[in-house]
Amino acid sequence: MHIAPTRRSRVLAAAAGLVLALSGCSLVGGSDGGGSGDKADPVASAGAPGAPGAPGTAPGSPSAPGDPSEAAAPAGKPGMVTLAFAGDVHFNERTVPRLNAGAETALGPISKTLGQADIAMVNFESAITERGTPEDKTYHFRAPATALKELQKSGIDVVTMANNHAVDYGPVGLQDSLAAVKNPPIPVVGIGPDATSAYRPWITDVRGTKVAVLAASQVQDITNQRYAAGPAKPGIASALQADRLVKAVKDAKAQAPVVVVYLHWGIEGDKCPSADQKGLAKKLADAGATAVVGTHAHVMQGAGMLGGTYVGYGFGNFLWYGTSPYPDSNDTGVTTLTITDGKVVKEAFAPASVDSRGVPVPQTGAEAKRIADRRDSLRPCTGLAAPPR
């Protein structure tokens, strides 16, 4: 496996005259989302060329305007990794203009918080296609392939497409999505031309620490029924096949001390995790996952520690086309984990609110406290311990 050096090591090498100055150069296999300028560079997992997680090229991108968040990642040092997570993102209806947001970036000022972490991740709740026939369901989301580039500019380093909208436009849409993730500007996990690819983690190196990221969907819907990836079948990684996902986590753990599983799970509108969520979280923690996080409920769900594993049951909506019919569905934010020597040592939360454009806007003062306090109030029904802060 080829391991790309971190961006920090490139800068130091440049200062020593070993490489060209980073400015204006492409980073092969990298995603430089802006912010602190200390992003990790991705490493493709072993497997067929063009599988999700295969490297692309990433030019530098500007930092977003806005005040620094209290959840800003600390300066990196060997053995330490910072991971930023947020919820569901797509470009539909009122968020379509964010594909051409200009200097502000698609995600707006909160891009700075995302960019300050070594790795930032969201759920891309969409098919990547401009063709196809809508599936027999109520809601359909799709976006052009340029959406991945816009997310990269917003500080995002990797996205999951293991969700119930990844194949909203049928086999043709799936074909287009697979083509889009074959050589993407940022890695895409949780989808592939077969199960091996769909469950394959994206692996990166951050200052000498390998991080593996994989994804799957536990939502029981048409997508999981018709388009769960199989031995020779394209589709998404299914968390309904718990044994297959557990094996993927164990295999990832053999390659990387830090393993992140991003899931699509839970019951829409429910602020507490379901029995299925809790059961799967326990299995993945036992398999060695460092962090198990997810979305789908359209509202925030509680977070905390399950033994040594961080579990974030629900991040809520993030870049969202409309107001969901659930209380507090506009409450959102960015969760940043600091991991040292493979262990979660700190959780920080930057509160935000989805505005009338569908954009997550950072909050301060009383509103920030309200969102953060409400988020903490969701922990008791999870059975999780408070995370380190």
> What average pLDDT do the residues reach?
85
Poorly predicted runs are 1-38, 41-73
Please tell me how large the radius of gyration is.
19 Å
CATH architecture: 4-Layer Sandwich
Examine the coordinates and then state which fold CATH places here, giving the name of the CATH topology: Purple Acid Phosphatase, chain A, domain 2
Number of domains: 1
How many beta strands in the DSSP annotation?
A: 21
Key terms:
single chain, 389 residues, Purple Acid Phosphatase, chain A, domain 2, eight-stranded mixed sheet, 27% strand, globular, disordered N terminus
Could you please describe the fold and organization of this structure?
The protein has 389 residues and is of the alpha/beta class. The protein has one domain (7-382): Metallo-dependent phosphatases (Purple Acid Phosphatase, chain A, domain 2, 4-Layer Sandwich), CATH 3.60.21. Helix content is 21%, strand content 27%. The chain has helices at 7-15, 111-115, 146-153, 170-180, 195-198, 222-227, 242-253, 275-286, 365-377; strands spanning 27-28, 41-43, 57-58, 80-89, 119-124, 127-128, 142-143, 158-160, 188-189, 191-192, 202-206, 209-217, 235-236, 258-264, 291-295, 300-306, 309-315, 317-319, 331-340, 343-354, 360-362. The longest helix has 13 residues, at 365-377. It is globular, with a radius of gyration of 19 Å. The model is unreliable at 1-38 and 41-73 (pLDDT under 50).
